Amino acid sequence: MFQLGRVCVSEPARLALHHADVPLGDLLMRHQHGDWGRIDALDVRQNALGLRLGLRLRSSYTLRANPPDPDASVTVWVITTPNRKTTTVFLPREIFDDTSNDHND
To answer: Which pTM was predicted?
Structure first.
């Protein structure tokens, strides 16, 4: 359906995929073919518009631990930029995780 461009995967997302025994390629293929995972109706409409107008595309997938543990799941987001040059795979919580910006003052 669209080009992914360069694929960037955060380390937390890479670990989550590994622990859930889910190949990165499987999520990327789902995203690229319009299987957006668990997103709400507004995001579905935004993605439909994004496909037509070349805007940002977002998918959200819930990964379960392997072996399955109902208390062990993690959400992974896949976002492709409007220019289709980059697709990033990361955990939503990373947006608010400022530990990577720790400073020794």
So the answer is: 0.86
